[in-house]
Amino acid sequence: MEETQRKEKGLLKAAGWIAVVILLSKVFGFLRDVVVANHYGATMVSDAYFYAYQLPALAVVILGGVGGPFHSATVAVFTKIIKDFDAKPEYEVKKLFNTFETFSLLVFGTLSSICFLFPHAIMKIIIHGASPELINMAAMQLRIMSPIIFVGAVIGIYYGILVTHKHYLLPNISPSFMSIGLVFVLLITGPDNNGFNLAAGTLVGAFAQLLAQTPLVYKMGYTFRPCFEFSGNKRFKEIMELLFPAFLSSSVGQLGLYIDMFFSAKLTEGAWTSLGYANRIFQFPTGMILAAVLVPLFPLFSKLVGQKDYKGVSEYFTKGVTSLFYVASLMMVVIFIVRYDAVKLALERGAFTSDATYMVSEILFIVTLSIIPYVFRDSATRLLYAFNDSKTPFVIAACSIILKFILNSIFVQRFGIYGISASTACITTFNAVLLGYFAGKKTNINYREIFKTLVKILIAALFAYGAGAYVKYILTSLFKWSLVFGLTLIIAVCVCSLITYILASHILKIDCLEYLIERFNSKRKKTQDIISDEGNSQNVR
Q1: Given this model, what pLDDT does residue 523 score?
Q2: Can you tell me the distance from the alpha carbon of 67 to that of 117, in angstroms, rounded to the nearest whole number?
Q3: Cα diameter, the chain
Q4: Which of 41, 136, 409, 414 shows its CA 20 to 30 Å from the CA of 172?
């Protein structure tokens, strides 16, 4: 019991710090979007950039980012073989690290070279049917950003090593360097007519992210020495058995994005940019809570699976998922109420028009409908990875690609860019259901308790929505819109919705709230005891 409480305190503390750090990183990402929107708006130049960026993003964000295959494979394997996390790594650990990094550099170096040499052919395939001007512009930007693919896997490996050694802060703040690099270049150079400055700034930011992680990794003893012993290495084979299907799964999942690009190439100018902004606004809070909960939880999953403590795995999975549901539901309520005002406040200036604001806000509404299955999908995926099962997510992702093409064919023809968002929401739910089913096969997950808690959470969220929507109605009927009013409105809705949500949660006796209150009271009592002890010591003196 004492050990369980110790682990919970450690996880809660880690989650809190990670949430703060990721919030800072997300703020930098938000500032990046504001600067890009102000310089380029929702135009052909920004469309070309976001089309071209998808391949580099696959490497540095999807594959090498938090929760990506390289991060997940590194954590899953190295957590089990490192004996002392505070000491320098043993010879076999360093050998495995060097073998993994050498292999990754060879593979991704090849992919990077292909993108550099044949960008026009690649973009012509991806956005088939787009205008020659758009294809040429995207090809030029892809060539500039192609080296990012080379460093993507290394970023993922370093991220995994740092998390394995419980260094959560640096890897979670390092993505902000990518945003800082882009903003720095744009503020110096200003906007241009073909997006050269956008691509160059993104390249600078990616290398800044890698350089931010490297010193601490080397300080821990992981100096890179090329090692080509790819065969006969049991641990490297274990990494490949986990990595390859996960790599295919993530790549197949990315195919869904390329399908979206294919269908959007003939839509209204700026539609793809608007979809990108809506997704990033959605990711601002969602990505933060996912990382805050799952980053410290995933190594624990792997450790408990290694110890065959399946009951512990189930308990922590239930707590993690219900906590995510609890926070995500409040976020969903707030986004539904103030999405238009938030987009207008954040982006509508310079080249970004009111039409673009409307398009982004409506796409954001559709995307947010999938927030519950979204957080559950990522949680179930981490659990399967902890069991060294990356084949199941791959098969499910492959099936979803076929469904994605079918749904896009139906929805895009009728609803345009909004149809792409609707099909994405359906696919997310499809993946969540199947992943949850197969995760339940690995260990005895109490889905009855999870579903019961979710129903209570959604009822509380409904009350919070009513209160927040009423506050917005009153304020908008009394005042005209301005920047100050927009900010005040968002704050008022957030506060009112939060208070109502907490009160409803207390009445419904939602376990998540009771757990958080218990942890808060425990920490407050501990602080009071420390202050009391210090006071008694001074009285004695």
Answers
A1: 47
A2: 30
A3: 83
A4: 41
CA distance 216 to 415: 49
Which amino acid would we find at residue 11?
L
d(Cα 342, Cα 364) in Å, to the nearest integer?
A: 11
Q: Collapsing DSSP states into helix, strand and coil, what is residue 286?
A: helix
Q: What's the mean pLDDT in 395-422? A: 90
Res 280 pLDDT > 50: yes
In this structure, the chain runs to a length of 541
Q: Helix, strand, coil shares of the chain as percentages rounded to 5?
A: 85, 0, 15
pLDDT for the residue 541: 41
pLDDT of residue 381: 84
455 CB-contact burial (10 Å; exposed 0-12 / middle 13-18 / buried 19+): exposed
349 φ, ψ (degrees, to nearest 5): -165, 165
Q: Round to whole Å and give the CA distance between 164 and 86.
A: 11
- Supply the pLDDT for residue 158: 86
Cα–Cα distance, 156 to 72 (Å, whole number): 9
Tokens describing residue 491: 């704050």
Distance, CA of 470 to CA of 337 (rounded, Å): 10
CA distance 103 to 184: 33
Question: What does the pLDDT read at residue 127?
Answer: 87
Task: Give the dihedral sign, CA 526/527/529/533.
Answer: positive
Rounded percentage of the chain residues whose pLDDT exceeds 70: 84
Q: What contacts 246, CB < 8 A, 6 or more positions away?
A: 69, 72, 73, 385, 390, 393, 394
Contacts of 330 (CB under 8 A, 6+ apart): 461, 464, 497, 498, 501
The full set of domain ranges for the chain reads 2-445, 447-531
Place of tokens 């993003």: 57
User: 339 near 490, Cβ under 8 Å?
Assistant: no
Q: Give the least confident one: 9-18, 268-277, 331-340.
A: 9-18
